[in-house]
Amino acid sequence: MGTPGTKRGPDADERRKVTTTDILSRKQGEKIVSVTAYDYPTAKLVDSAGIDIILVGDSLGMVVLGYPDTTRVTMDDMVHHTAAVARARPQALVVADLPFLAAGVSVRDTIGHAGRLVREAGAEAVKLEGGVRIREEIRALVDCQIPVMGHVGLTPQSIHAFGGFKIQGKTQEAAEQVLRDAIAVQEGGAFAVVLEGIPSRLGTRITHELDIPTIGIGAGPGCDGQVLVIHDMLHLFLDFTPKFAKLYADVGDMTCAALTSFREEVRDGRFPAEEHCY
Ligand code: KIV
Q1: Residue 127 belongs to domain spanning
Q2: Rounded Cα–Cα distance for residues 44 and 88 (Å)
């Protein structure tokens, strides 16, 4: 087991707090790197690797809570998990998702929900799914000094409307709609926008058209940054792995092997050994 609090990232000593203005200034500069986390120890690990943005995504509904999609995640779920991440006091920027129906219904409610994520949970910015439809809500949040990250394309909260997890922007008309949504997010005052599940060519085009950074997930290499769900990268979520996710370490397999060893050692009396006893 490592020493508690061990710094792992290459520049861990020189790192300072990442802010939304830092992210904005990375447009077409050094690529932005973001990973999800939903709890305190994972946030510590992600931060020690020098990741720029910790996203407390509502993907937690699927990879942590076992729901079939993200639509059942509540504001209380998001506050609970965001607070755990914020307690790690990461240098990375902490962005929390507004879950299904927490935005897009009324501007007043959206401000209230986003306010909870900042005031109660310690988020430093919020992420909202949608484009043209929620431009005024983004504007209202920014006016209230709550930084916003947008999210367009295959927005998972819309899966019932989309008829499933379907790549967006495949036809000319659909591509124009995704572009319009991304522009609306920028016009609302967001500091960055996630592009999810769109053809790579469209990801590159939107990145060129916008002044704010784009952060892709299944949107190709032309984006200003990339985000992945940590459970997908580490094979901690076993139900399925999306095409856009790369497996960086099979921690799921390692965990299973470790637990099998534990079971065997307890059953045959090798654990606990002398050094584990008082
Ligand atoms: O909920 C989430 O983790 C997300 C990312 C997939 C971008 O929104």
Answers
A1: 12-247
A2: 6
